[in-house]
Structures are given as C-alpha cells and as structure tokens.
Fold this protein.
Amino acid sequence: MILMKFETRLKGVIPRTHNVKSFRFPRPAKLKYLPGQFFFITIKDKGKELTKHFSFSSSPTEKNYIEFTKKLSDSEFSNILNKIVVNDWVKIDAPYGKFTLSSEYKKIVLLAGGIGITPFRSICRYCTDKQLKIKITLIYGNLAEKDIVFMKEFEEMEKQNKYLKNVFTINEATDTWKGYTGFIDRKMIKKEVYDYKETLFYLCGPPGMVKAMEGIISQLEISRDQIRVEYFTGYL
C-alpha cells in the first residue's frame, strides 16, 4: 500500500448511537487501503492542531468516501470533533496497520467490544459487497442495546450475505431483548462457532476486554497463529 498524506474537508457527520458518530471525508481516487486498516487524522481548533488515529469504518468498496467512527467523550479531541461542521479542514495520513482480512482462512470469528466494532464494519461490508465466500461470525458485546453501533446495518448485511452471522450480547437487557445477556465467554463461542478450531479469530476492543478474550481463546486451545489482536486504548 502506498502512503498518502493529504488535506481535505469534512463531507458529513452521521450519528450512530447516543454517543457515537461517524465522520466522513471525500476519498481520493489514488487512496488504496485494506479492510481493517487505520489512518491518522489531524483537526484544528483556534490554530491548534491535534492528531489521532482511527480505524476505517468504511470499506474499500465504498469508493466516494472514507470514514472513521468514534465514541465521543469529554476529551479535548472529542470536544473539537463535536464542533466541526461540513467543509471544515482536516489532514489525513493513510493507510496503516496489519489488522486486515486474511486470504488464508475461509472461516473467521470477529470478537468486538464497544467501539472496537469499527474495523469489523469495514471487513463485513467488504466481504458482503465482494460476495466473498468467507464464513464470518461476528460476536459483539455492549452495555445495552442502545450502545450497539451499526446494529441495523449488520442485520441488513446478514440478509444480503449468507456467510455472515451476527451474535449480539449486552449486560443490561430489557424485557424485549432476544439476544445473549452477559459478557462474551467460552460457552457462547463454542455454541455459535462449532468449528472454532478451524477458524481465524480477530479480537478488537478496549484493552481489558481484549485481554479477557485472549484468555478465553487460550482455554479453547486455539493456536496463537489463529489470533489477530487490535487494542483500542481509549476513546480520547
């Protein structure tokens, strides 16, 4: 992949949940990236520039834009993001990262927590658009149903892609909730992925969640070569 550094303007802001938004930018024709990669973005406020890196939540199949998705907090970076509007200036440096779709395995499990879903949205969208015959099981944990980012889109992709299965679990369930309740655990994985020993596992989310998932995967006696890990070290 060829690295590109370019200045551009905000194209749009898409609310995803009560505290998560996607930020979208025009995609240069020459920008190539892989699903699961990330980029650095620089924003400006009162002459001060701040830079952070984010996974592409967009897929390489989406030709007209690139996008990142962020849980907004009380950090300085989040506060500036909350104020930027369409046509505001940004600088982008892309692409980076090796947390990408592997052609070696035709069966993958995506274990996500919270905003760690963003690279998996890119991967699932890519596989669905390309009609790839890769069996994907997405297991995604959140505090409550209102926190599930891209929920409707994943449900639509599941209808379009017979190889994709979504498994949602939350800690605070209502009477109408029909999915799992509680943290992702070994029992859940074994029930939803009967052929887990032949599967490549991707883990993404807050460090504590990822550490816990690594422990569970080790209990399943999965080879280290069958595990890919991306830590989201905070929402700042």
User: Anything to note?
Assistant: The radius of gyration is 18 Å. Residues 118-130 form the longest helix (13 residues).
